[in-house]
C-alpha cells in the first residue's frame, strides 16, 4: 500500500508557526479592543539645550493581555498594521490623544498613525471632531508617520498633510533613515519634525559610522527647515554628543521611560513603566 502522507519540511513548519503566532497576536489585540484594554504610554521628548524642559510627549499605544500584562506596540503592531485591527488601534490612539490634549491645555502631544488610516472614515471623523471641538488642540497635536508608511502612498500623504497643516497640526517623520525615501517625494512632504532612527543613535558617542550618518541626516533636516529629534538616547555620553552635534531634541530612556501614569494624570503617584 502506498504511503500518501504529505511530508512537511522545515520551511512549511516555520510558515505554519508564523501563521499561528500572527493569528494569536491578532486575536489578543482584538480581545483587548473589545474589552477596552487599550491604553497609552507617554514618553517625554526633551530639549537638547535644556534637558529639564519637555518639548512634547509621544503617546505610544499599549494593549493589556488576559493576564493583565501591558504589551508594548513592538510586539504586535507589525502584525496588525495591514488589518482592520490596525485601523481600529489608530482610531483609539487618536481619540485618546485628542482627549488628553482637550483636558490638559498646556500639553503638546505626538500620536502615531499609519498612512493607511488616511482613507479610513472613522479615523478621519475622530480627527475632524477633535479639531472642531477645541481650536487649541490643532496647534498642540503632532501626527507621526513612519518613513516606510509614508512611502506606501506618498501622494496621498502629501495631500493629507497639506490639508491638515492648514488647520495648525504638525507632522513628524518617524524612524528616518530606517526605510527608503525617494527624495523627489521627500521634498513634497513638508514634514515639520524629523525623528532620526535609534539604530544610528545608540552608542553614537563612540561610533564613527553612526556619527557620520547622523550628521548627514541632520544636514538634510536643516536644509528643509525641519525640527530634529534623536530617538533611543540611553546614556549621558550619547546625549552630550548629540547636543554638540546640533540635534534639537532627544527622546529615550535616559530622559524617561514610557509611562501609563504621566505627570498630568497623577502628579503625586509613582509612574508606572510600560
From TrEMBL:
Annotated InterPro entries: Cyclic-di-GMP_PDE-like, EAL_dom, EAL_sf
Domain EAL, first and last residues per copy: 22-272
A single GO molecular function term of this UniProt record: cyclic-guanylate-specific phosphodiesterase activity
Pfam families, per database record: EAL
Protein's name in the database: EAL domain-containing protein
Native source organism of the sequence: Thalassococcus profundi
